[in-house]
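User: Study the chain.
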Amino acid sequence: MSRLDAGSRDDQGALFSVEAEGPFAGVVFNRPLDQVFSYAIPKRLRGSVKVGQRVRVPLGRANQPITGYVVWIEPSAAVDPGKVKDVLEVLDDPPLIDGVMLELTRWMAGYYACSWGQALDAVVPAGVKKQAGTRIATCLIVPDEVRLCRDTWTLPSRQAEILELLCKAVGTLTVTDVCRLAKCTTAPIASLRRRGLIHTVRRRMSRAPVVKPSDPTVPEDDHDGKAPVALTSEQSDVLDRLAPSLAGDAFATFLLHGVTGSGKTEVYLSAIERVVARGKEAIVLVPEISLTPQTIRRFRRRFDRVAVLHSHLSDAERHRHWRAIASGEVQVVVGARSAIFAPARKLGLIVIDEEHESTFKQETTPRYHARDVAVKRAQLEKLPVILGSATPALETWANADRGRYTRLTLGRRVAERPMPRVDIIDMRREKPSKGQPAHALGGLMRRAMAEALDDNGQVILLLNRRGFHTFILCPKCGCVLKCGACDVALTHHKERHTALCHTCDAEYPPPDRCPSCSCNTLHYGGIGTERLEREVREAFPNHVVRRMDSDTMRSPGAYEQVLAAFRARQVHILLGTQMIAKGLDFPDVTLVGVVNADTSLHLPDFRAAERTFQLVAQVAGRTGRGERPGRVLVQTYAPDAPAISYAARHDYLGFVAQELPERKKHHYPPFGRVVRLIARGPIEADVVAFLDSFAGVLRGLADPGVLLLGPAPAPVMKIKHLFRYHLQLRAPTAPPLQALLRAALPLADPPHPIELAVDVDPVSLL
C-alpha cells in the first residue's frame, strides 16, 4: 500500500507542494505505519472532529474504512487536492485522548520503536473502544431560546411539569427517564415536540450508573487500613522529605527502599492523602498478583472514591471506570500495568509498588515498561512519582546512585519487629532412602512445619513450578517429551490426566511409551505444586491445605476466597507459585518454606540471579509480620549462590555490591542499554536467512559504539509452530540504539509470514 493513497502529509507535501484549504485532520492507525495521514474534514463534521478522537476514514486504493486516531487539526495542509480523502465518521464524543497522553504516546512510539497509532491503541482499553455497557437512546433537550423564556408559555400542567423537569435536569434524560420521573405517558412529550418546545437527539448512554465498587469478601470487623495509624519515626522522616513535592507542581522521582514489613503502603496512603487534600488525584500501580482484597481494602477505607482496574473486569466495567476517572469522580486509581494510562485529569502523584516486578513490562507491541512510562508521564505533568520496593531493580538503584532519583529508606520493620531468621537447607545432603522416590520436603522442612503447626502457627510454602511432574523422560534413549508446537518440555498434570505445554497450553494424553524409541518404561520426574500438595496432605493429614496457582485459581473469586479462609485461620498451610510471594500480610504465619530456590537461578538470562534474589527475599518477608517471630527455610542445591546467600541474610546492599560488577563487566544494564530483535516464522531456514540479512543491514548502519550479538536461536527456539531467532544490540546509552532503529527498521521488510519483534529494554531474554 502506498502512503500516498491515504493522503500522507509528508509525502504529498514533497511531491505536490500544494497548500489545500481545510480544515484537515492528521490521523494515525494501529498499524506499523510510521507517518501521519491527512484527511479533509467535510462540512457536515466541522466542529465535531477534535484531537484525541477516533474517526473512521478510508485507507488505501480500496478505500477500506478503518479506525484511526486524530492527532492534529490544521486549517491547511500540503496535500494533492485530487488525492486527499474525507473523514467518514466521528466515533467518540468527548475525545478519549488528551494533550498529555498524545505527547506521552508520541514518546512511547519513538522510544519503544512502534508506530504512534500502535502506542495510542494500547492506551485505550478494549471496553472503551467498543463502548461496552452503552446503548443508543433517544434523549430530550430543550432549545436555549425556549429555556430562557419558558415562563411565558401557557401550557397544560403535565406539559409544563415536563418542560420544567428537563430544564432543571443535570445531564441528559431519555424519553423513558422523563416518563418515569414525571409519571406520565409519551403523549405530553409528543405534544411538546410538535410545538417545537423540545427536541429529540440520539446519544450513546450508559446501561448502568458508575457506582463505587464494593468488596463483599471483606469482613466488617477487619480494621486493616480503616484509619491512619501512628507513623514510625522513619515513615515520618520519609513523608517530611516528600512533603515539598507533594505540595507543589514539580517533577521528581523518589525510590522508596523499604524492607518487607516496614510500612511502605502506609507511606503511600499518607502521601496520597496530602495530594487528595489539594484536590488532586493519584494513580497507584501494583503487580496484578498484588491486587488482593487486603490491598484494595486499605485504599477504599482511606478514600471515598477509588477505582480498581484489573484483568478480571468486564469490558463494561472497565468502560464505566474509565468514564468515572475522566470525569473527575475518582480520587485514587489502583491497578496493574495499563492503569498508568488512566485518564486522570488532575493527577498529582503516581506510585509504583514493587517496582522491580517484571509484570510491569508489556510483552506485545508496544513493549513498554509501565515504570518508565510512569516516570515520563510524571515528567510531562510536572508531578512526583514514588517507586517502592524491598528489592529494587538494579536499574532503579543505579538511577538513585547517579542522582536521577532521590532515595528514601525504611530500614526497620514496623513496631521494631525483627526480620525473620533464614536457614538454608543444602538439598545435596537430603538424599532419599534407597528405593524411595525423592520428596519435595526435606526432613528439616517437615520438622519445622510440624513445630509451627503444633504452636498454632500457619505455614506458607513456595514452589514456582506448576503441575505434578515437571518433565517426562525416556531412560533408554534420553528423550525428553516436548510439545509438538513448542520447544518446551511437557508438564504432567495428574489431576487433569494430561501432559500440558505451559507455553501454548496444548494438551496431550500422558504417553505410555517413548515416541522416539518405543521404550515403555518412561520416567516421570521433577516436582510441581500439584505433587507438593499431595505430599503435604499425606504428611499433615489433620491440617487444612490449599494450593494457589493458575490451575486452581481459575474460577472468579477463587483467589479472594482462599486468602479470606487463610486469614480466618480456616487454612493452615498455603502453598503455591509466586502469586503467594508478594502482597500478603498475615500475622499468624510463623514459617515460610522455599521448596526449590533454584527454579530460575540457572536460566540463560542476565537477570536470573536478580530474580532469584528478589523472589526469595520477597517470600521471606511474608512471615514475622505480627507479634510472633517468623522463620524461613530455603531448600536449594546451590547454597553458595550469592543470590540465595544474600537473600538469606536480608542483605540487598550486599547482593547489589556483588551483582553490579558482573553486570558492568558484560555491559549489561544498568551499565548499558539493550535492544532485542526476535524474528519468528514457520520455516526455520527462512527465519535464519532473514535475520542474517537484517543483521548485515544493522552492522552497516550502526554507530561504532553499538555491539551486535547474534543472530542465534532463542533459548525457547519454537513457540506455537514458529521458529524463533534473536539478536541483541548493546550500547552504553540509548541514543545510538534509537538512531539505529529509526534508520534500519524501515528497511527490514520481513517476507510473509515472518514477523520481526523489537523489544527495547527487555526484561527477559528467553
